[in-house]
Amino acid sequence: MLSGMESSNRPQNTPAEDLALIGQAQDHLDPPRGFALTYDVLFSIVCGVFVGAQALPLTIRPFATIVVVLALIALMVWWRRRLGWWLSGYSPRRARWVTFAMLVPLLGLMFWAWAMPVLWVALTAGSIAAAVAFAASRLWALVWKRERVAARNVA
């Protein structure tokens, strides 16, 4: 009688072979060319709209926030359906610091838009926020890829 802990008749991989298989699987995590760029552009637009929306009148601002949150959820669902996986900006160890660094200027721009609710501030803050989010998103992907390569080389 075999218990669940006993090995089956199939040959077992060596640890080196297992690591090679993990590395091959991780190679498939890279999104198709152009897809990540599309995501970064859409993400930066959403961030820009969210920051600029802080200058809207108080009666409209909650609805704008709901629209932005729904847009972010749609972006996540779109990515997951296309690639089969989703990775938040906070989960990779080193890449998360890019996310935290992005939040600092975005929060400052949000406060500026909130404190000066005029159209030119909303457009300026939103545009700067979109540029910051785009640059941070590209940098995040670069750090994430390097972190994966470094982890594979250490193992």
Description:
The chain is an all-alpha fold and about 160 residues long. It has one domain. Helices cover about 70% and strands about 0% of the residues. It has five helices and no strands. Helix 4 packs antiparallel against helix 5. The radius of gyration is 21 Å and the shape is elongated. The two termini are about 35 Å apart. The mean pLDDT is about 85. Keywords: Membrane, Transmembrane, Transmembrane helix.
Explain the layout of strands and helices:
Layout: H1 15-27, H2 35-52, H3 61-83, H4 96-115, H5 119-154
Protein traits:
155 residues, 0% strand, transmembrane helix, membrane, transmembrane, single chain
Give the gist of this structure.
Keywords: Membrane, Transmembrane, Transmembrane helix. This protein has 155 residues and is mainly alpha-helical.
The average pLDDT score comes to 84
Main sheet record: none
Number of domains: 1
Secondary structure tally, helices: 5
Secondary-structure element series: HHHHH
Q: What percentage of residues falls in helices of 4 or more residues? A: over 70%
Strand content: under 5%
Poorly predicted sequence stretches spanning 5 or more consecutive residues: none
Q: Radius of gyration over alpha carbons? A: 21 Å
Secondary structure: number of strands: 0
Keywords: Membrane, Transmembrane, Transmembrane helix
Transmembrane segments: 36-56, 62-79, 95-114, 120-143
